[in-house]
Amino acid sequence: MQQMIRRMLCFLLALTAIITVHGAGSAAQARPTILLDGFPLAFPADPEIIDGYTMVPFRAVAEAMGVTVSWNEANKTITAVKGTGQDRKTVMMQIDNPVITVDGSPVTLPVKPIQRGGHSLIPLSFFSKQFGAEVSWDEATRTVSIVSPPADLYKMAFYAISSFSERSYIDQFDSVAFGWSRIAEDGSLTVDGKDFYWPQPAGEVTPESLVQNAANAGTVPYLMVFAVDGSGELSRLLADSSLQHKAIDEMIQLAKEKKFGGLVLDFEGLGLGGDPGQAKQRYSQFVQALAQRTKAAGLQLSLVLHPLNGAYQGYDYAVLGKLADDLIVMAYAYENETQPEPLAKVNEAVQLALQQVPKQKLILGISMGSENEQSIASKIGIAKRYGLKGIAIWRLGLLGQPAFEQLEKSAGSKALPASR
User: Fold this and answer.
1) Which residues form the GH18 domain (predicted)?
2) Distance (Å, whole) CA 387 – CA 57
3) Do residues 280 and 320 lie in contact, with contact meaning Cβ atoms separated by under 8 Å?
């Protein structure tokens, strides 16, 4: 009996070892990951290694890089187009044919395009050679990494609180919102707030000269009006039509007098308590009245909004997107703002916004209070992935040269050159 028990124990130990080895082998062959600008990209077919070349699903990667893809079932051909005008590039390829055409000229791929389960796979190196992406394959982690090339994104920066040290960056942005005004506790507009106020001249540098120099450099200067519902001042304003008319009059007058090209409304804190539906309605009505006035005055109107996956639910994106020229999604402050914002949260915020607002009107807000020169590239990558209008950086004074250089690498340089 004891001998039989010993044999049974030996058998179980051997079986356990086999299962363990098999399990380890399965784990080693986990499904590959594709990272685009540091964030996972969903893909319909697994990458493969053929003759030493990494093959990746074409449409999933291409469309995430802003490439328009069409498929001709009859002759099994793919047409990919990126850019417009002189920057337009057209690539045509056929399944099982290694020779493709790039703007009409033949190019031979190292491995022919193939199909797997109805999905086209092409060599990863294609995206580097034809669309300027940086690509790599990590065999140990089975990870495809793609860094997208610079995109021509609209770039806004905020100048507020302690931005003077980085004023030289102003002319490198398409627009700058100067945070020098706010709604006071009595519901009126003030330029003498504790945090957002009209700054004093610093030698020959005056607030007016900063605005004028920005405009001269082709950077549109915006007047940012801040408000928070901390003491109920925002709710008070939105509930009183006479206060609203007065505040709107003051905003338009100040913007025109100081030669701003637009208004940025940063009204925060709506919808945390009370009736979010009522907050949405009242804020939308206020913006509607303001939009009529800004349009008549020839001013642009941008709105800074809490993200739809945040705590503040007092903002009707669908309505506001129709009233304003663009919406800035404040996809940050999810946690403690001492480390980069979680990419999954930022991605979700953009996806939710896109359900209600066209991508051409959406700007991704990025806080340099949270981000650094490494993480900013992934945030910009999300804006590029969804084809958003651009990005808005909070704020000058927190940016720094390394992060600015990464911003230019990811989002491109301003079209109009300016000396610094």
Assistant:
1) 128-420
2) 20
3) no
C-alpha–C-alpha distance, residues 126 and 47, integer Å: 14
Same structural domain for residues 162 and 278?
A: yes
Strands 68-72 and 77-82: antiparallel
Q: Are residues 122 and 241 in the same domain?
A: no
Distance CA 61, CA 41 (A): 8
**Same-domain check for residues 134 and 177:** no
C-alpha dist (Å) from residue 354 to 104, 155, 316, 343, 387: 35, 19, 13, 16, 10
In this structure, are 78 and 220 located in the same domain?
no
Residues 124 and 159 in one domain: no
Any idea what the CATH number is for the domain that residue 394 is in?
Answer: 3.20.20.80
What's the pLDDT score for residue 8? 43
Pseudo-torsion of CA 180, 181, 185, 186, nearest 10°?
150
Q: Are residues 235 and 376 in the same domain?
A: yes
Tell me the residue range of the domain where 366 lies.
154-411
Look at residues 147, 175, 205 and tell me which one is the last residue of a structural domain.
147
> What pLDDT digit, counting tens, does each position of 271-323 carry?
998 899 999 999 999 999 999 999 999 999 999 999 999 999 999 999 999 99
Give the neighbor-by-neighbor strand order of the sheet with 119-123.
Answer: 48-50, 53-57, 119-123, 114-116
171 Cβ neighbours under 8 A, 6+ residues apart = 213, 214, 217, 218, 219, 414, 418, 420
- Say whether pTM exceeds 0.85: yes
Rounded CA separation 105/107 (Å):
7
